[in-house]
Amino acid sequence: MLIGIDSLLTPDLLHALASMGHGDTIALVDANYPATRSRRLVRLPGVSVATALNAVLSVVPLDTAVAAPAQVMLPADGAIPEAVAEMNVVLAGRGAAPAAGLGRHEFYAAAEQAYAVVATGERRRFGNVLLTKGVVSPEAAP
Fold it and tell me: Which CATH class is domain 23-132?
């Protein structure tokens, strides 16, 4: 157990997050995502994607040098699913813009290049987000 670290951030997940560099991506995906396509897989069973997103953003800054540091999978009709709306609330609470939308196959292609994939227990459809890690500034709390 660590002080000040969200208990959802397991040793494996903390290692992946700490190992990522500026510009690396991590995918937080729902229970239906084909996670076997990942390079590194971390499992958070029973956890919603929004809860996992909030935990990850407690220790990882989003990249301010890219147009869309958070990208979600959206259905073909462009509707905003409940899981995506919830993730956008988390992003807003962290001072970030709403996530940009990608089609299913675009998201899969991008997620396959991610440094790691975090398979959550999210059962709602389209509960998938891709994050680009930013720079940890010298002013950030130690």
Answer: alpha beta
